[in-house]
Write a structure and sequence with these properties.
globular; mainly alpha; 4 helices; single chain; Non-ribosomal Peptide Synthetase Peptidyl Carrier Protein, Chain A
Length: about 90
């Protein structure tokens, strides 16, 4: 993971830990999709990530939010969203 922000690195670490992935946080590309062809995550993974983000940052990402595809589009977009809405 080249030139990532502290938030991007924290979220990559959170994703690897929460989902017990067999990659390191540094191996998650900043701009690749997290779901489908990218990291290969699914909707259950999104719920788990959302729960962990809520606990750690106080940011609620609701399942019915129409922006979810954009929010979870990449590690960079997720970090930007959490950074803008963090209450902790």
């Amino acid at each position: 993971m080249s030139r990532c922000s502290p938030m991007e690195h924290e979220l990559a670490t959170l994703i690897v830990s929460a989902l017990d992935l067999e990659v390191t946080p540094e191996e998650i590309p900043l701009d690749d999709p997290l779901f489908g062809d990218g990291l290969g995550l699914d909707s259950i993974d999104a719920l788990e990530i959302s729960l962990e983000i809520s606990k750690k940052y106080g940011v609620e990402i609701k399942a019915e939010d129409e922006r979810n595809q954009q929010i979870f589009g990449s590690l960079r977009s997720l970090a930007a969203f959490v950074g803008q809405h963090s209450t902790k």
